[in-house]
User: Fold these one by one.
Assistant:
Number 1:
Amino acid sequence: MIKELKRLLKEKQVSAYEILETRSRSAQLFYVLNKLETNRHTENRDILVTVYDDHDGKRGSSSFKAMASDDATSLSSKIDNALLTAKKINNNHFDLYQKTAKKLKEVPSLKADDLGDIATRCMDAIVKADHFEDVWINSTEIFVTTTAIHFMNSLGIDESFDKTTLEIELIPTSKNAAGEEFELYFDTTLVDDDPEYIQKAIEDVLKQAIARAKAVSYDAEKMKPEYALIDGEMMLAALDGLIGELNYFKVLSQSNHYKKGDQLTPYDLNLTLKAVIEKAADSRPFDENGVVLDEAAIVVDGHVKDYWGPINYGQYIGETNPSGRYGTYELKVAADKKIDKLSCPYIELLRFSSPQFDASTGYFGGEVRLALYHDDKGEVIPVTGLSLSGNLYEAIKTCAYSAQEITHQKYHGPKAIYLKDFKLH
């Protein structure tokens, strides 16, 4: 199929093209109340073709999917249709990625021996974790997937990588003394199937489900936290928001909050985009345009150093070597901004209905489904019925960070951020 595509693209004298081929094999297990309902194995192949047409100093583009059922006739028709569309688009010209001396970094991956065995071992760890009263796992889905990515373009780029990941989705359900039931949702993707790590992660979410059933309404009169702790989804939403403000597209559209040289924080804070982070499942050696990734330090010592983003928008704003699109990043902060343990009242905001960030105003927050209030005597009270709000651009200037570090699917750095400038209501 690829050979035939290249022949047709050359025959039709397209100005340029990109081909992104994705092959995947997956073992999938579906459980209801720890009882296996479905055992599925899948194999897929997706080919995305982007055709470019140069006209009147402009470069238009259009994409289509090549299917297994396509033959030379149908592929030829798809290329013709894509070219017709591309001729009507008048984007500024940009160059496709060309060969460099950069070498592809090796991405973290599970050993792709028997995908089914990995899935079964994972479920064994989940069953071991399910040992608490008044909480159970309503449903579990396990996906072990080997993905092979192959990228080619008309300038001779031909590169590939593969990795195997383990995704776990489950819904724990808890019940309080009155018989009311509460659900939480858990989803993680790993490149490590360490059974002890998986068991601990599931035990933690089951404990959160128990806490949700016991939660009382937040009392703003009695509860006076000095810090609000955010981690997981909310912390990543905040950091993603800051990083997104430094994207080439934001700069091009003149909607970016920060500019090069701006002070983001009055303390040392460093944000580095990385091709590969150990144990981070979203690591990748190149992006969707074939750009080989390395490292891009975008915030250094609290100041904006650089922008980042896809090759076309980078060229549009005058970048000679656009960074490419990264999947993972690392956060480092000054030692005096790290906290081992708080002695003052604080609140852990564990579960949000939908974390939100508005780049135009800096607003971030959302409805909190579960929080743990720590009073000055060390007592921990599960609470619900509250919302967080704040201005991220201001809050980042006064916050602190946990000394403990963690690696998520796309992140390595402090496990949590301690907000000083926030509102609970």
Note: The mean pLDDT is 96.
Number 2:
Amino acid sequence: MTSSKVFISYDHDIMKFKEMRDSTKFEKILQSDITEIGAKLDALGMDGILIFSRQNSRWNLIFAKHLGLVAQRTARRQADTISRSGFMLSSGERIGRGDPLEQLSADNIGDLSKSVQQKYISTDLSGFHGDSRQN
């Protein structure tokens, strides 16, 4: 019997998605709250996971917490291509051709949302008056 879900891991070091044959540990991870899955992928040393549901004919993409925005965008482009053209399994079966893709984890924008002062100045500037000299 074929599993209802196919798990494809993303390795940013080689910038590739690879089929995962042992899916039992990922079935358990998916039962977690979506906000916890990224941390669990971190613990497994994974950068991301692409999941194809045979039941729903749908792709889901989840990134580990440590993966930055640029790496996420690189993986997302590849996942978009996979969702359009499908993914060839080691069995020779092509799955997911033309099926929708949804990214379940939030983008990791790191400190991009912080102002320069929040990033680089660690002191409270209250009381700072600057240069009071007149030119």
Note: The longest helix spans residues 69-85.
Number 3:
Amino acid sequence: MNKILISFILTLSTISITQAENHAKITEQQAGSSYSQNTEDTFKNEIGNCEDPGVLMLRATVKNDISRSSPEKASEAEALMKEGMKLCNENRVFEAKLKLEDAKTTARAGLVDGEDPSITKVVVDNNEITKEEKPWWKFWKD
């Protein structure tokens, strides 16, 4: 009985610690944090003076893919994204786009479910009536 109780307590504490670490990562960008209170500094640090819409759209795509990617690929993609934004701030837009494309490819390679987000799934239900079945309103005819 004591062994079961001790193993239950250890399992519960491990889960609690893991959840606490995840909570710290999630709350970093929530309202009231230093991340959201210094929006101009955050904007300057992440985007700077890059005004190319193509680069900014690629950055948004990479950020979206990073949030769904495995931790290893996400960190690689984030490093590539930062390099790309640095290149854009130096007015090297073409090189920045190439670097961001690499970041997008890296982030998509580590997608958790292994699927390409650009492909949408179509679910089709087969609701065909068999020849033996009759519609409900024709119950009086053979």
Note: The chain has a mean pLDDT of 75.
